[in-house]
Amino acid sequence: MTLTIYSFDVFDTLLTRWISNPMQIFRIYAENAVQQGLLDISPNPLYQARVNADRRARLFTNQIEATFSQIYRELANELELSDDLANKLQQLELTIETKYLVPIHQADEMLLQARRSHPHVVFISDMYLPSEFIIARLKQHNFWQEGDRLYVSSEIGKSKGKGDLFTHVLQDLRIKPAQLIHTGNSQRSDVDRPRSLGIKAVHFNDANPNRYEAILQKYDRETQGVSSLWAGISRYARLHITAQNSKQRVLRDIATSVAAPILTTYVIWILQRAKAQKLARLYFLARDGEILLQIAKELAPQIYPEVELRYLYVSRQALRMPGLTVINKAFWEWMFDDTNFFSIDSLLKRMCLNQQDAQPIFEAIGYPLATWQQNLEASERQALRRKLESHQQLQELVLNVAEQKRKILQAYLQQEKLLDGAAFGLIDVGWRGSLQISLENIFALLGTRMPVGFYFAIDKPTGGLKHLGQVQAFFFDLNQSLGMRKEIDYRYVSAMEVFCAGCEGTTLEYMLQADGSVLPKLKHQQNQPALDWGLEFFQKSVLIFVQTLVRRSPDQSALMRSPKLLRESLDQLFLSFNDDITPDEAAAFKDCPFFDDPNELYHFYWAMPLQLKDVYKYAIAQRDGLNVHRNAWYEASLQVSSPLVKVVVPLAIAQRKLLKRLKKILIKTNKSMIS
């Protein structure tokens, strides 16, 4: 019986690094060498000398890889190092490699399966690192057994890329090509080349950077290596999270490679700013703050251990009415905030009015009870608003309700220690800081301290309102004309709402208990539509990224560097996710719920398929957009739409552009005729 022997590539097949760009190891090595006083130069010249030494050493070997000792002979020659110092630098690089090398989760199972065929396996690597070092790392992670063999290109003078290293292995083992099965991550060196020699090959590319990690990797210089570390941690996290199906694989990859780097960087910025301003407490506002608080609990001990982290049950619905002291333009804009579905019944819920008190008022102005659940068209909403804006009895009723709710809210704020005078911050995603304004109205009435508001991004408040406390933003601040955008980017708005979705229902109001305590009243105890979609798995994947960073990463200095240096890389990461969505990714978000109404009376889905009737109406200018609802993700919606819709959409867009051009021509012609 002919025995089958298995061979494995080593790097990014069995072992990988905490950073996705291997060249970053040289930067870390150079920084450490200077910090330890081994050389009296800045890190960058040593980094460049190390890179150059590798290139020049290969000139004299005529090989793809030079040996480690040959590289350091070149480095010693360039920097005129003593033998002793060159040896210390060699050892330092190996120490850093050891620190940054980690096992790949699937490696144990692959090796176990291989050893069932033959007790000994073969390791083949195109690498400059010495074989004794590689064997030591394989032993360290229990991959090596006595009797195994390692073939390193730099020491043998042959390579996988050329194919002659595989030929050498076959000859040395005295086996035929059909008796060897090779596994590796490189399509060319580990799959195409051995197959051309008659060797069976398995492509294991799970540890190769995915498209998001590759984006982060490109920005390692601009981010002082932090984005490369983020990419490496993303890779490690997704490799160690088991997905049960294709949808979970997508959610895992988006959580670890897109959401986690963005949210983690945002929370690091919050904690750094809170420390700089010596805030005693940080309040994470429901529900966007749910996952942000969990991230902060992992990071705070490393960045600002003295700060107290708390969760505050709030919502626009729960705060707007208690903070109301005057009926003004801002009040009416909130009451008639545009949603896909708007009825008198939903308006009353915003006003916190019961049916019994409201019925006489609304019936008197022409709205019988039987019509209260009907969705009002835009013109009908405007007509209703005009009637209510001049209705004194309704406004008095609303202000009385607001006063009653304000007393209970005050008790809740007192309970949560917001009124004790200590400096504190409020954390939300964005986008206009309306929750902060509502709380500030209460604080102003009570004469207590104003907060510092932290936001991912912030736009100017509507209705002429202004913040009484401080407002700071990470990504862009349109109040200060600072950051990555000059106008609010609604792609980020919907994506961040999904990334920060909460597992509980929204907060409706507060209930005073017999013992004087206050409990929030939730719409639902669980956000079931989001849980059904996979929110818990998504959050778990994000947190594994954070926990890996805090508990396992060898480089904690990333937590102290300026997070805003990463904004450009994070933006490119997000734009790739939003604009270049794959069919599998779009399908995974097809049933992701998106709540449009502040009282969660209904919800849509983030990636709802485009409807043929809507495409037609758009083409003839009867609709402003193609999406089923205003918060839908167009690129993903198009991906999950029917083949017919995908064909018709480009035609509809072209038709709409033609209509716009014709309209401009007609307007210009009419002006010419009049003049």
UniProtKB/TrEMBL annotation:
Gene3D superfamilies: 1.10.150.400, HAD superfamily/HAD-like (3.40.50.1000). InterPro entries: HAD-like_sf, HAD_sf. This is HAD family hydrolase. It comes from Pseudanabaena cinerea FACHB-1277.
